[in-house]
## 1
Amino acid sequence: MLGFRKPQQLAVAAVVLAVTVQAPVLAAAGVADKAPHAAATSAGVDTAMNKALDALPASDGRYTVAVRDLDGRHAAAYGEGAGAFDTASIVKVDILAALLLDAQDRGASLTAPQKKLAAEMIRKSDNAATNALWKTIGGTDGLNAANKRLGLKATHTDKDGHWGLTRTTAADQMVLLEAVLGDAHTPLTAPSRDYMRALMSTVEANQRWGISAADDGKRPGAAPALKNGWLPRSETKLWDVNSIGRVEHGGRTLLVAVLSDGQPSYKAGVALVERAATTAVKAFVDAENR
């Protein structure tokens, strides 16, 4: 299963071959900047972040990173040329967004049972709760419809309906994070976004790894909002390890996504994701402050 607290209890939802390559030293594919007047500066930030990540020691597997300053002025991406990655349990954020969109369309609130399932899905990464809500939103058709409204263009559901094998890119996760944790125009209402942020800011203690490592803890009351995902592939015995969310660093509020696959173990994947997140965020903010 995807995203339980004890990796040894995980089971694979489907057999899909994971390709292992060296950690990417790839040309950056910049995330589109919403503010044209800041494009040149964003290019400089992107270059600085890519240089810092390129300088890291080579690691197993591959990874991709995207970072955006929440005010929309600057954005940077690394390794987007690597293509799509399995979502594992980060798709649970997407599933909750779809659930909330449906409730909004009906002019309704989530029911008490749905709220209980949503809390278990995000805070505990519970798969049974996710399975129930996956059915509620209409499975692949429901998620695809929601993603079209949210603006995700490179996220594709698994043909056999396994939610954890949805494929995505770091750029698409930025679109999702802006819709969920940002202040930009989004189909999600402010109460829906506040609800999602509250859940993502209160995940269980043993799941507060990943992009949260990049949070400097200097803004009182602003806990990192995140969702992680991890999945061992049965055929290769290698791991997908991902982390997405919102952090504070150097007085900036940043959206961050790190996706990886081909990791030799859960522990190695977590270490890679945290190393990439902290390196990327520091370089990003340092470049912004120059």
## 2
Amino acid sequence: MKTTKLTRLVLISLVSFSLFNCEKESEEIFETNQIETEKAAHVCIEKWNTDDNISKAASVKAKEWETGQTIRVKFLNGNSFVQSKVRQYAVEWEDYANIKFEWVSSNSSANIKIGFREGQFANDGGSWSYLGTDSNNQAHSMHFGWFNNNTSDTEFRRTTIHEFGHALGLIHEHQNPVAGINWDKEAVYAYYAGPPNNWSRAQVDNNLFRRYEANISNYSEYDPKSIMHYPIPAEHTTDGVAVGSNTQLSATDKSFIATIYPGTTTGSGNCDGVSAYNNSASYTVGDQVTYQGSLYQLAASGWNNLGPCDSAPSTDICSGVSAYNSSTSYSVGDQVTYQGSLYQLATSGWNNLGACGG
């Protein structure tokens, strides 16, 4: 991800940041010369078993792990710091999916095998994962091509959770069967033909435009906030609709993965083991469902909202986010904590996402 040069910005309230010239003795200095993350973000490359049917969508359901399964994961290389960051963020899926990751030594057998861009993998600058149980058949099943000791926590979180989503069987959200993105195809072809992707038109078709078949794929309502969505700049669509760089699990991500791997999770929240609402299902009084991040129970008079899902390990929005450091260069989409609140860098400045602990 490209970074920007530091200029000065002072925090003047708990709600927003405002730009002005300040002296050296100002309380804090924040970065303001932004870039559009949608244009600079690294994107994941899809990986499939070479013997799969070219349509690929036909085998999505078949690539899910067993509910409640312990999935063994090992690192093929990488230093202790980048390995620790992958472990830190990968386990967020355990709070909502009834699976468990077991981290084993490099010489042990494993289902998921992770490489970094060094040594024998020095020429692979992409990040990718094989889909679900395809990982079993690969000696190198997941790769992080741009992680190093200077990678921001936001980028570690975004990419790690995304790739482990693929490893659990999730497809790219912009290829959801019900996604209705109005692509400006020629603009997209031209953009991805250049570095760092250098994709052919066929690769663009496969990674962006092709949608999965509804009757053979697990899918939810289209979710532009999904961690599995590519960032899309406005100039890549004919109607100017853009999608930002999603850095955390959305409410739909959480409820949907619980329908794929239902049951007791490692979290202790009120929505653990509760399936997402399905408009094709028949419900009776007393039944509970999750819908758009909240828990509902059916009463004689209709659905009662019992409150937001609150799996214990994820209630603090600042969990795993580093404090702001005036010596660090930040990129659009990065998150920091500052004076008890969580902030995210946007093209217009730092946005306050709320108080830590909430």
## 3
Amino acid sequence: MTVSELAARLGLVGVVILWCALVWRARPALREPRLRGLWITVLAATTAITLFQRGVVDALTSAGVTVHTVSLMRNLIGVLSAGLVLLFVVDCRRSPRLRASVAAGLTAALVSLLVLDLLGAGQPVTGAASAQRPASATAAYWLILSIAHLLGDAVAVVVCWRYSLRTTERDLVWSLRLFAAGSVLALVFWCGYLGHLYGLAPGLLPWLSMVMGAHGFLRAASLLVPTATALARSAAALRTSWRLWPLWRDLVTAVPHVALASPRRTRLQEVLRPRYPLVLQAHRQTIETYDALLTLQQYVQPDAYERAHRHARRAGVPEDRLACAALAGAVGQARRAVLVGMPPSDPRPLPGVTHGSPQTLLGIARMWPAMTDALPCRARTSPAAGHAEPR
């Protein structure tokens, strides 16, 4: 595969990803004023990148559209996208006068390109590479086109990076940084493209196409940051729910009043048919497990934690898991005490449970299968015998 073929394929893949990202983020972005400018900016850039692909140009020319028309539309939309980049980053700085200046400059650049093309100041370049060249061959046209892009991308790099250092909202930070990184690649492209137009690097165009493809990936990534964050949260919640389920099921079965709903028959059913969104379900199971642990402290036997700790050490449990193993053993004994009908007593707080964290609960859940039956449990006091069975 030649460099040109590889560049063409990567370019098409990048375009498809960009359009998918735009469609996916359209509804939430258009509803949120803060994200609307970013979405529209990426839309304009995606349209220009699409019209830069040789396969797209060939398809349009086969449909009767001239190469000159495609090039002119690409140039105008490209300059529009550069102006929208400036308007987007200037809007972040809330400067109405500067935004008006950018809008006036953008209008002047677009009108200048149209006038140069309509006046026929130069003829489009013909040949194999003409589909990816500007609509006009004049130096003035090239300079207006290149300077508009270079100016917009240079300002975007500086402003997006600086603003990302000032905000504390994680999604916005990464969106701005990825947008800035994409603008860096756009600067590389336009510097190289200007050199290519002036004949300084005639074989550079395929490599520049790959740079533009990478730029497209970063633009798509800047749009998909909220989606990636939501997926990461859902994955973390799914992992928490899956690992916590055996402990949660056993405890809420013994102390059912802490649960909003009874557990399903299997763990797989619980994650495949969640009653709530995954994040909410994991949060609910964590709270219910913690509430059950607090209730079961009334059934913890004296020295249960210490005996479970010694049992876990003798069983070869690693040092960093001994505390959780001891908690699992003591809670397992308390759970069985509830199930056999033992009366509650004064609560015996367990280490690390009063202010237990999700990590502590997950640690207990990890040791639960091995430690739940580690300690023997007294049977319920018999009214006839008047004493408990020996442990």
## 4
Amino acid sequence: MNVEILSKKVFFHAVLLLGVVISIFPFYWLVVMATNETSAMFAFPPKLTFGSYFVENFNNVMQNMNFFRALLNTVFVAVVSTTLQLFFNSLTGFTFAKFKFPGSKVLFFILIGTMMIPGQMVLVPQFIIMKNLGLLGSYIALILPSIATAFGIFWIRQYALAIYDDLLEAARIDGCNKFGLYWHVALPVLRPALAFLAITTFMGVWEDYLWPLIVLTDTSKFTLMLALQQLKTVHTADYSMVMTGTLLSTIPLIVFFLIVSRQFIAGIMEGAVKS
């Protein structure tokens, strides 16, 4: 019996280890290619060891694109978009969860229905709206369409349903108004949900390529995803340089994920202890 249990544990951990290797390998390959010449990408058998060309590739990236300007642009757009989404999504989701008003259920189901519309279908209407508002080419055109999302509102609402009505009633007795209930009572409880939403929103904005490509015209306002395209030419491409630029643009995203994910896990553990 012990042998059978041990074999199951070994098999289970082997499957988990295989999954980890498969998940990490693309990033490992990115680092390997960023430290080698372009010819290493086409070598057979594939080269899996680090090279000594990272500094050269890094210098090439700095010479062929305004990396730090693009990084600053991306950080600004991602931070502002994420902050606005967290505020408006959490406020709306909490309202749908704990306040009843005429047409609230119908409005919520319409909101959920918009999640079935492919994002590509709304690009043209969004572009026309931004054009009519005179916002094309500005950071506002990148941020405004994403200040609230149907998924974010739905996600927060489902989490906010677990907030005890007695807790809200006690806060009302203490003099909290409706916004005070949201700010002082709901937000601390919603911390794990907000951390998850922050991760997905920040990563989505950081990696977005299509919408910035449509609305931005000034190269000085390009985000990283657009600026990286400057590393490729029509006829040739230094893939090691492209890999190095991609690696540099990924590192801040990883740092942000590690920081916020700790808050997400801490919030879950805190809820588990209280329950």
